[in-house]
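Exam prep: given the inputs below (a chain plus flavin-adenine dinucleotide), describe the expected output before reading on.
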Amino acid sequence: MRQGTYVIRSNEPLNVVYHRMILEGDTSAITAPGQFVNIKLESFPLRRPMSIHDWDESGFCVIYKPVGRGTEYMTALPAGTALDVLCGLGNGYSLPEGVRRPLLLGGGSGCAPLYALAKACVGKGVKPTAVLGYNTKDEVYGEDLFARLGLETYVTTADGSYGRAGFVTDVMSELEYDYFFTCGPMPMYRAIERTARTSGQYSFEERMGCGFGACMGCSVMTKSGPRRVCKDGPVFRREEILWPTQA
Ligand SMILES: Cc1cc2nc3c(=O)[nH]c(=O)nc-3n(C[C@H](O)[C@H](O)[C@H](O)COP(=O)(O)OP(=O)(O)OC[C@H]3O[C@@H](n4cnc5c(N)ncnc54)[C@H](O)[C@@H]3O)c2cc1C
Ligand code: FES
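Solution:
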């Protein structure tokens, strides 16, 4: 993890719901897709965690949905603004030995970190299938990015206004795969748990306090006791997780 000043290169709407912010600065602490950054916003005591969508040696990119005061404030920040960021937090996704046909299952803002994972898989000679789920056509982003990597890419919308009508699990249940990686909301995770036929990795976007392991404000239950999403996660293996009904 590295704390430093990062300067906004661009911060623009991607569509009517999501925004993309590119920040310049030292990315040497980012070691795996699925890690996140924690952004300090002026006059907000708590930092706002965001998954890393993509990065290179000059900076990183996040995709975010304004849902409250902090993320609304972010949308108004102009290029050139310097932000205090904790960069390269948490443990990301890892591609297990022998996995050849993984699925990437994204829900809304959870599609963002799966792009960096897709790039990492392709770099290792593994071509996943991407299934991106949104509520409605206005929210859809990223389909072109995954397709440009040469991935078979499916989009679902809950209201049927774009792609396949329904949920990522409707597509999942029809595909052949030997592993899955996912990031998205809890109702999607419950559906994946009912549908999945293999092992996989889940990323949790829990509410956070400190963001670096000091407050226990982000715990999830696992078979080996409570674990901190910010430090031990946000990515956990399917076999480790104790879902609320099992707890
Ligand atoms: C590891 C991690 C990665 C994340 N990555 C992304 C990302 O890539 N893109 C993105 O848009 N968001 C992401 N989030 C969620 C994001 O951090 C929150 O939406 C943001 O902090 C809300 O701040 P706010 O001040 O706008 O909202 P608040 O005013 O604090 O809350 C507004 C509403 O959003 C809800 N909310 C707040 N935080 C969360 C959360 N963590 N999960 C679900 N609902 C929440 C609140 O319950 C409330 O209803 C991530 C969260 C975590 C923990
Ligand atoms: S947010 Fe403080 S321990 Fe995770």
